[in-house]
Amino acid sequence: MQKVALITGARRVGFEIAKGLLKEGWQLAVVYHTSQEVVEELKKYGEVEGIKADLSDFSSYQRVVAQTVERFGRLDALLHLASPYYPTPLESLSLEDFMNHLMPIATAFLFLTKECAKYMQRNDQSPKGRIVAFGDWATNTTPYKNYSAYFLAKGALHTAIKVLAKELAPHILVNGIALGPTLKPPDFSQERWDAYIQKTPLKREVSLEDVVELTKYLLRVETMTGEIINLDSGRHVAGECT
Questions:
Q1: 135-191, pLDDT tens digit by residue?
Q2: Cis omega (within 30 of 0) for bond into 143
Q3: What is the DSSP track for 50-70?
Q4: What is the pLDDT of residues 126-136, one digit of tens each?
Q5: Strand partners, 51
Q6: DSSP characters for 65-133?
Q7: Per-residue model confidence (pLDDT) at position 144
Q8: Other Cβ atoms closer than 10 A to 51
Q9: What is the pTM of this model?
Q10: Which of 215, 235, 234 lies closest to 9 in space, CA to CA?
Q11: What is the Cα–Cα distance from 103 to 110, expressed in whole angstroms?
């Protein structure tokens, strides 16, 4: 029996995760906002249902999950990577900036999980479902300046992982991966990125292969829930990030 996952944010890191799962026979529902070309590329690797949705729109959550189950008939996993990332200096921070981060990062995770759990509970296997959210190493360690909306939203996401792990136990496992420097953000120069990598104890970017393999592990683990794993080349032990 093929397993089915719903994945949000399949453009950068999410693309590699989606590709890895498709190669192992998973069927995927991929939520996209503007990047339909990513969905078309993923279809080369396996069975994919593209679902166009704006995760800043509360009304989209129920539809996204229902469309997934309508296409594949079941749901085994939710992978939540959707995450805006742009500077929001405190002096110019607006409510719109804050909500533009909070809704797709944390609100979507909470309510997509709520909807997914209804269908996961129908599964015969134990555990009945697995949910993985992607956070940020700096959220619980040393958030850096000028990204207040991003880090407040990621903080809510980290809390939601623990809250939902307790709410959905014992049948659905909820865990998180707190990523460090994996792919250069669009607003970083190469010089700034290289300097950032040098601040990690391992002096290298997080391996995409490691991200994919850790995700796969969390999709088969049976006795872990409420955990947030730092995958960051050791950055969380290296001190303050400015």
A1: 999 998 889 899 999 999 999 999 999 999 999 999 999 999 999 999 998 878 999
A2: no
A3: EEE--TTSTTHHHHHHHHHHH
A4: 999 999 999 99
A5: 31
A6: HHHHHHHHS---EEEE-------B-GGG--HHHHHHHHIIIIIHHHHHHHHHHHHHTT-SSSS-EEEEE
A7: 87
A8: 21
A9: 0.95
A10: 215
A11: 10
Return the H-helix or E-strand segment holding 227.
Answer: none
CA distances from 126 to 37, 130, 171, 219 (A): 36, 10, 7, 12
For 149, counting Cβ atoms within 10 Å of its Cβ (0-12 exposed, 13-18 middle, 19+ buried), the class is: buried
Please name the residue that has the structure tokens 């593209």: 50
Phi-psi group of 43: left, alpha or beta (phi > 0 → left; psi -120 to 50 → alpha; rest → beta): alpha
- Is the pLDDT at 241 greater than 80? The verdict is no
Q: Which residues of 211-239 are buried (b: 16+ CB within 10 A; e: fewer)?
A: bbebbbebbeeeeebbebbbbbbbbbebe
